Amino acid sequence: MARARGEIVGWTKHRAAVEDLQRQLAAMPPGAPVRLAKRTSNLFRPREANPVPGLDVSRLHGVVEVDPRAGTADVQGMTTYEDLVDATLRYGLMPYVVPQLRTITLGGAVTGLGIESSSFRNGLPHESLIEMDVLTGSGEIVTARDDNEHADLFRTFPNSYGSLGYSVRLKIALERVAPYVHLRHVRFGATGELLGTLRQVLQDRSYDGEDVDFVDGVVFSREECYLVLGSWASSAPYTSDYTGQQIYYRSIQQRSEDYLTVLDYLWRWDTDWFWCNRALGLQKPLLRRLVPRRYLRSDVYSKVIRWENKHGYVAKLDATKGKLPRERVVQDVEIALDRTEDFLDWFLDNVPIEPIWLCPLAVRDVDHGEQPWPLYPLKRGEQYVNVGFWSTVEITPGRADGDVNKDIERVVHELGGHKSLYSDAYYDEDTFWSLYGGDTLEQVKHQYDPDGRLPDLYTKAVKRR
């Protein structure tokens, strides 16, 4: 029987699921590659077909326990944020950072990266992690914390994308919520003006006399960009609904303020996958009215896009019409606030993709040196802006597929930034390791995956393109 969304699994069922996983491991031939059998993924780089059966983790996608007094939750690794939020909101709590798409899993956000409008004060999802049980490449399940014998695994696991192991259980800290979020949409005529105001907001944690609890922004063009400032609210004169015919990102241009329930705020970007469902025609009113509300979700659109990426029917049809082939440019990059205007100027001049999403972040950890997370070494005390852009561009004569992505990597590197590895990457191996862990990752991988049963990070992120 299917489990209700947000249902608490409990420790007995969790232990039984882990024991089942251990039995599967024991049945594998010694040295056989360790991989998970997952039906869905929020990665946007190709995944190779693998003849080796993966481990069935279908019993590891629930919330084990919520402790409202301690403000913590124990969560199985395959649990989606949609299920996690449904379980925690009933106690007036939510994860410190809730990535924008419903089917991102907690384990995926920790071993990869996640970000949202609370990241300017709460960092990234792994920074609210207290401990985790990890299935390592050596076939063991170890409990890693910042203060035990597996502390090196704990700190190196973020951004390792399964190259060190897979999380079976994660214990995370939660924060209190208010019932509503009050949004203010502040328009600017230039990106430099927006970034100047953003700097002040990040410093004061307020704007125009009101506290700011959430910050993100949208660049629609060089002359039209917005900061979206969210504040907790105990009451609301009205609430908007962007789960049906109304489109959230268009509301930013259409109204100066808004109110959402906390649940609708967390998933405001999911209904239209930011703005990416434009490619499917789902922002045309007539077509949108024909689509049941339950299908207006990012996971539905991503299945359609993956199907097209695999079969290429639209690309073939475009070719018969004489249209140029297109390169996928789906990336999130982190740029220091001081250099973000330089990046946006270059991007708007060279890459024909709009809108662009902006989301400020800062490392929350204050106890572990200048760069506390070695595989994604953002500096403590530095303000960054995540710049997200997700579309395709024409491959013009004389250019090849991948050239625009390579240009972006080059400019990000020149500006001292980093990019997430959930999508296509083109770095040469030396450059890659200088940016993503290098010797540190090698040492930890040797300890927890001595036989190389898990692909290394460069193989996963770059070679399997």
Provide structural commentary:
It is a single chain. With 465 residues, this protein is an alpha+beta fold. Helix content is 32%, strand content 24%. Strand 10 (206-207) and strand 11 (210-211) form a beta hairpin. The longest helix has 17 residues, at 11-27. The mean pLDDT is 92.
Number of β-strand runs: 18
Number of helices: 16
**Mean residue pLDDT:** 92
The CATH architecture term of the domain at 11-48 and 57-177 is 2-Layer Sandwich
Ranges where pLDDT stays below 50 over 5 or more residues in a row are none
At the first level of CATH, the class of the domain at 11-48 and 57-177 is Alpha Beta
Widest sheet, order of strands: 14-9-13-12-16-17-15-18
Write the layout of secondary structure elements.
Layout: H1 11-27, E1 36-37, E2 55-56, E3 63-67, E4 72-76, H2 81-89, E5 93-95, H3 106-111, H4 119-122, E6 129-136, E7 141-145, H5 151-156, E8 165-176, E9 180-188, H6 191-204, E10 206-207, E11 210-211, E12 214-221, E13 224-233, H7 248-254, E14 257-261, H8 262-266, H9 285-290, H10 298-311, H11 313-320, E15 326-336, H12 337-350, E16 356-362, E17 383-394, H13 403-414, E18 418-419, H14 429-435, H15 438-448, H16 457-463
Parallel strand pairs: 1-2
Antiparallel strand pairs: 3-4, 4-8, 5-8, 6-7, 6-8, 9-13, 9-14, 10-11, 12-13, 12-16, 15-17, 15-18, 16-17
Helix pairs in contact: 6-12
